[in-house]
Structure formats: structure tokens, C-alpha cells
């Protein structure tokens, strides 16, 4: 084959590759950043030190009915707070927020999920969003009508499904709304195991898509 023909073939392959990248995007797109990992979590009630608010944004989601979520979830004492509690995430600097993702507490009882929730930003007395969660394991969206810049977000849980000690396995926060595929990534079994560095690595994210 002549050098001229070889160059034409190579150029053709490069053009095709460029077209595919432009059409479908990079094969190694970065994982969405979970802003909650950088926040300080606090609550108006905690079941004990092993189920403190500080474990609600550590990147660890206990498996469904695994019977152990110590230091991997937040819970409140059902005797006093079964029908209401508040969880707050605070950042050193304001962040843009478009979507939160709630994982109900399901290590012992599926009924330990919260039901009704209102979302408040900073000192705003009016809720930015109100949602009703399902009684189930896994990620559930709280999508805002518009992105918000805030240094503090409070989840005011107004009722539960009646479980012993309601709470949250995890709460995540994102600057943009997750795609359906990105949400599915959060549902995969890999993510339900504690991650050593509390982050989904780029390699792990790419492998799960």
C-alpha cells in the first residue's frame, strides 16, 4: 500500500473518532461531585454516638437489611422523634445546590425511612421544596426547581413510616440534577459497601456505568 493511501486511511479513522467523541462525549466522564462530603452535619436528635449526624454524609451506604449500620448512618430515638427531626449540612463557603439524594435507614427495618420532608436554605423561613419519600431502600431524589447558592441546608423531616428509630443511611448533595444513569450508579451493590476513601473513584464510576 502506498504512503499516500496509508495517510488517507489514518486521517479517515481520526475523523471518525473525533465525530464519535463529539456526538457521545468522553468515554471517561468525571463522576458528579457529592458536595455533602465537604459539609459538617448536625441534627436536633441522635440515637447515640454510633448513629450520629456526622455519619450521614460519609459516602457509605449500608446494604439493605444488613443488620449493622453503626458509624455509617444517622438515626433518632423513635420514642421521642419518630414523627419529626431536623438534619443540617453546613459548608464553610456557599455552594450551588440543585439536587439532594436521600437514602432511608434500611439496615434493620425498611420502615425506618422518613416520609415527609421539607428543605430549607440558610435562614429562609419558607421551604424551597417539599417531598414525600417512598418506604424503600436506595436513592430518592429531592430536586429543586432552580439551583440555589447556600452555605446551609436543613432537611426538616415531618413524619416517618413508623419504624423503631428512623433516620438516613446517607444524604448527598449535587450542583446539578443527576441523570437517570448517574442515579442508577448510586443504586449498584458496589456503592452499598463502605468505601475506604468515602468517594466513588473515577475508575469505579466508569466501570459501573
Q: What does this 3D model show about the protein?
A:
The protein is an alpha+beta fold and 209 residues long. It folds into 2 domains: 1-28; 31-208, Jelly Rolls (Sandwich). The chain is built from 4 helices and 7 strands; from the N terminus they run αββαβββββαα. It has helices at residues 3-24, 78-81, 180-187, 202-208; strands at 40-43, 74-75, 85-104, 114-121, 129-132, 139-160, 167-174. Strands 1, 2, 3, 4, 5, 6 and 7 form a 7-stranded antiparallel β-sheet that branches. Strand 4 (114-121) and strand 5 (129-132) form a beta hairpin. The longest helix has 22 residues, at 3-24. The protein is globular, with a radius of gyration of 21 Å. The protein starts with a helix and ends with a helix.
Level of helix content?
Answer: 10-25%
List segments where confidence is low: pLDDT < 50 over at least 5 consecutive residues.
3-28, 190-209
- Reported by name, the CATH topology of the largest domain is Jelly Rolls
**What's the total number of strands?**
7
The proportion of residues in beta strands is 25-35%
Structural class: alpha+beta
Give the overall shape. Answer: globular
Radius of gyration: 21 Å
Order of helices and strands: HEEHEEEEEHH
Count of distinct structural domains? 2
CATH top-level class of the largest domain: Mainly Beta
Question: What's the story with the biggest beta sheet?
Answer: 7 strands, antiparallel
Helical element count?
4
CATH architecture of the largest domain: Sandwich
- Average pLDDT figure: 83
CATH homolog superfamily of the largest domain: Galactose-binding domain-like
End-to-end distance: 41 Å
Amino acid at each position: 500500500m502506498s504512503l499516500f493511501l496509508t495517510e488517507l486511511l489514518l486521517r479517515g479513522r481520526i475523523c471518525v473518532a473525533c465525530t464519535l467523541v463529539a456526538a457521545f462525549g468522553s468515554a471517561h466522564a468525571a463522576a458528579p461531585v457529592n458536595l455533602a462530603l465537604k459539609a459538617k452535619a448536625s441534627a436536633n436528635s441522635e440515637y447515640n454516638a454510633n448513629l450520629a449526624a456526622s455519619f450521614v454524609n460519609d459516602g457509605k451506604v449500608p446494604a439493605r437489611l444488613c443488620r449493622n449500620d453503626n458509624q455509617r448512618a444517622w438515626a433518632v430515638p423513635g420514642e421521642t422523634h419518630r414523627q419529626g427531626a431536623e438534619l443540617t449540612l453546613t459548608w464553610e463557603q456557599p455552594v450551588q445546590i440543585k439536587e439532594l439524594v436521600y437514602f432511608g435507614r434500611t439496615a434493620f427495618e425498611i420502615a425506618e425511612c422518613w416520609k415527609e420532608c421539607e428543605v430549607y436554605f440558610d435562614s429562609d423561613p419558607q421551604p424551597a421544596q417539599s417531598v414525600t419519600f417512598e418506604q424503600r431502600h436506595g436513592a430518592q431524589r429531592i430536586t429543586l426547581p432552580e439551583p440555589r447558592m447556600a452555605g446551609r441546608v436543613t432537611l426538616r423531616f415531618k413524619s416517618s413510616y413508623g419504624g423503631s428509630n428512623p433516620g438516613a443511611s446517607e444524604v448527598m448533595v449535587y450542583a446539578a440534577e443527576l441523570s437517570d444513569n448517574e442515579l442508577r450508579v448510586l443504586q449498584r451493590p458496589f456503592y452499598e459497601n463502605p468505601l475506604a476513601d468515602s468517594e466513588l473513584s473515577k475508575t469505579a464510576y466508569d466501570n459501573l456505568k
